[in-house]
Structure formats: structure tokens, C-alpha cells
Write a structure and sequence with these properties.
This protein is α/β, with parallel strands linked by helices. The chain has one domain: Double Stranded RNA Binding Domain. The protein contains 6 helices and 7 strands, in the order H-E-E-H-E-H-H-E-H-E-E-E-H. Helix 2 packs parallel to helix 6.
Length: 205
């Protein structure tokens, strides 16, 4: 028996179990893919970190010819949960030309919603409506002591069309250490819009 076979087999097993790149899900329902302007909402319990992540995604959206605005400019942290009257908020956003909302959440892999990589990625049932997702995620990430420099995270991104508030796309990044976020987030933002264009979630002229 070749003495290198056990080593090769171990290596293959290691790589097969390693975290993969972005895993995505797209809605099978019809919707207008010609988004004009989207709001980027960071669900991160750290003002500086939230601002940085939202800015990275806004920048990447612009490079994909999609207008985007930083959520903190409209819903600063001092407002707390800004979506008590979701219909009023949606009307306000539509008045300002928004037709989509992208949520970007930093999720600890110890959270109950984390599931090991499977053949396909599919968001949990309650993701379907923006309000349901927002409140559940807000309650998760804004708990005292949620973030730790000694834990591992993934970025969870959902794309909702504003008219109905329904989910049209969801993605999950590979796993990374908290300390890597500063360099990881801009790369993730760039890849996010490459995926959205490739999967035809947003139409390109």
C-alpha cells in the first residue's frame, strides 16, 4: 500500500470539511429585478463597525451601477428599533426612491441559527419577511456581550424588495475570525454584488 495514501486521504477530508465561499439562495418567485436604489441596513451592535460595513457595501453597490445609501444616515442607532410601523417606514423609503433593502448581519457561529454547510443553503422560514427577520436578528445581535474577539462569525446578507417586503435573495459568507473583519468585509462586499449580478437578482443595463 502506498504510504502516502493516508496522508492524501486526510488532506482531502480536511478540504472537503473546510468552510466554503459564499453560499446563496434565490427566490423562485417573479419580481422586478430592475432595482434603482437600495438601503443598506447593518445589524451590528457596534456603531463604528456598522458604519464601516454599510459603507463597504454602499461602495460595492456603486461599482455595480446600483444606487445605495447607508442605513445609519436614515436610521441612526439612537432611534433603536426604527421599524415599529413598518408600513410608514416603507412609504417613507419609497418616497425617497428606494425599492430594495439589503440587510448585512454579523452572526456568531455559536448562534442557534448557524447550520453546518450542506449541499445547498436555504434561509430559515422567518427570513421571508423583512420585519420578521429584522426583529429576530436585532434581538440576537444587540444582546450585551454578543461580540467577542475570540469567536468566529459569518456575514449573513438578505435582499428584500421593498414593495412587499419579501425576500428575493439570501447569502452567507465563509467563516472568519472577528479580528479579520476589517480586511474581510470589503472583499465580501465586492463578491456580494458579483453574485447578485451573476444570479440575475439585479438586472444590469
Amino acid at each position: 500500500m502506498n504510504r502516502f495514501l493516508p496522508v492524501i486521504a486526510s488532506a482531502l477530508l480536511l478540504f472537503s470539511c473546510a468552510p466554503e465561499g459564499m453560499r446563496t439562495w434565490s427566490s423562485s418567485q417573479d419580481y422586478d429585478r430592475k432595482f434603482e436604489k437600495v438601503l443598506i441596513m447593518g445589524l451590528v451592535n457596534d456603531v463604528t463597525l456598522r458604519s464601516d460595513i454599510e459603507s463597504d457595501v454602499v461602495l460595492a453597490a456603486g461599482k455595480s451601477n446600483l444606487k445605495a445609501a447607508n442605513g445609519m444616515s436614515m436610521f441612526p442607532p439612537e432611534l433603536g428599533k426604527p421599524f415599529e410601523d413598518i408600513e410608514r417606514v416603507k412609504a417613507r423609503l419609497r418616497e425617497k426612491g428606494f425599492d430594495g433593502i439589503i440587510t448585512v448581519s454579523l452572526i456568531d457561529i455559536r448562534a442557534e441559527r448557524y447550520r453546518e454547510a450542506q449541499v445547498s443553503y436555504e434561509p430559515l422560514v422567518y427570513y421571508d419577511r423583512f420585519r420578521n427577520y429584522y426583529y429576530r436578528t436585532y434581538d440576537l445581535v444587540y444582546r450585551p456581550g454578543y461580540y467577542s474577539a475570540y469567536s468566529k462569525y459569518f456575514i449573513e446578507t438578505n435582499f428584500y424588495e421593498l414593495k412587499g417586503g419579501t425576500l428575493v435573495w439570501s447569502g452567507r459568507s465563509e467563516i472568519f475570525d472577528y479580528g479579520e473583519l476589517e480586511s474581510f468585509a470589503p472583499q465580501f462586499a465586492k463578491r456580494l454584488f458579483k453574485e447578485l449580478v451573476k444570479e440575475q437578482v439585479i438586472a444590469q443595463d
